[in-house]
Amino acid sequence: MNLLAAPADRHKGWYLSLMAANTKGSHFAWLDPSRLYCNSQTLADCVKDLLSPFHSDTIDLVVGIDTMGFIFFRSVAISLRKGFLAVRKAQHQNYTDYTGREKTMEVRLDVLKPGMRVLLVDQWIETGGTMKAAIHLVERLGATVAGVAAVATENTEGGLWIKENDKFSHCIPEELQSQIDQKHLDSFKTFN
Ligand SMILES: O=P(O)(O)OC[C@H]1O[C@H](OP(=O)(O)OP(=O)(O)O)[C@H](O)[C@@H]1O
Ligand SMILES: Nc1ncnc2[nH]cnc12
Hints:
Bound molecules: 1-O-pyrophosphono-5-O-phosphono-alpha-D-ribofuranose, adenine
Number of domains: 1
Number of strands: 8
């Protein structure tokens, strides 16, 4: 497959087959969305799909979570003609993610203001620990979470909680959800 070309049939989620099978360290199966960002048509379609539920919403700022999705989040912000604020995985807000490790995240304290409506974006939601911590951080600073968006969200307890409790969007068609949950796409068989 030519990673920089787009097929004639761009059905919903066509670009997800570009996610690369990978591992995170030696313990965690991983799908790497960063290969999507190499193809300009993919990036455009992915951003369009992700933003489709938010077209008539007021969003003042895009807030995206460290690390590999930063390139993608910036495209989301440009598409909305809004600015972008990075949440770094460092101090300020404690949380636990899929690794089970205690982590912290931080954000600039002088940007978010009461009344500001933000779209929170990450590459992936697995346990939901990271996204819930980011929601908490944004709300602690007085801003409002207008929506939560990710390339993919697993149907874990935390993932389902986010789907139900926030205005939410991801790029996964329902028929691919179980493959996302298993971190194994059928399209791997035909990818070469
Ligand atoms: O829902 P959770 O269990 O909290 O996990 C989700 C987080 O895990 C990944 O981050 P990670 O820092 O591992 O990798 P990245 O650099 O690719 O974002 C992903 O990008 C989310 O930020
Ligand atoms: N990119 C990713 N692929 C699979 N599982 C993940 N958990 C967190 N990020 C992930």
